[in-house]
Amino acid sequence: MTLLLASVRPADLLLTADGRVLHRNGAGAVVGIDDAARKLFPVPDHPVVVAHHGLHPVQGRPMDRFLDPFLRGLNAGNLGIVGIADELRQFAHAAVRTRLAALPPGATWGCGFWVAGFGGNEANGGRDGPSMVELFWSNREQALATEERRFTPTAVVAGGDGEKTLPARDWRRVADKPLDAVRDYHLDLQTEAARAPGEPSTVGGQVHELVITREGWRWTLPPPRAGATRPVTRAAAATAPARSAR
Question: Which of 25, 111, 115, 133 is most buried, most CB within 10 Å of its CB?
């Protein structure tokens, strides 16, 4: 129900997300589609962003409201990216475990978070380089499984259902390239995923995107406005995700 993309480079990170969330009933059938869901959540006043893919909502709350207490209470200036990921794991684990336990038998969906940016770890003089950590929870053979992956420059990373439709990512497409070239590469991947066979498409809706440098984060494509759309029941055409003009 997502395609997240991240290019982790020595001086910056670019994160791009589609806006689609599929709402399913207890049997797993799609009953609604929201094309203005937000999946990128910057940490105020710090060059760090949390991204989400997979199960939604958690604790009966949309992801922005679920994450809000964590983001407001985070002392990011004293932590590196790995440390922030550790804090997020502790915050989210019980709620995600409960959500997974409520899935219908045989469901294979999972819940993932990215923590991306520049850490402020005092032990490293506040100069942690750019990196990204992925946390992922899933049910495997009736057991809860947790995974963690870390990415450092230079890497192109994909997450969510849309990742399955993409070819291998090529880090050479983003290494030493202007930011606009990296943005175009992300859009190409988003468009390819949205056009993959399947009905309804799991990728689509309003794309939002931001860039993170050591100085902070900024939106290159702003996120959907709160309440921009409500979930609707309809078939989703396999069309390219909407993208605002630069």
Answer: 115
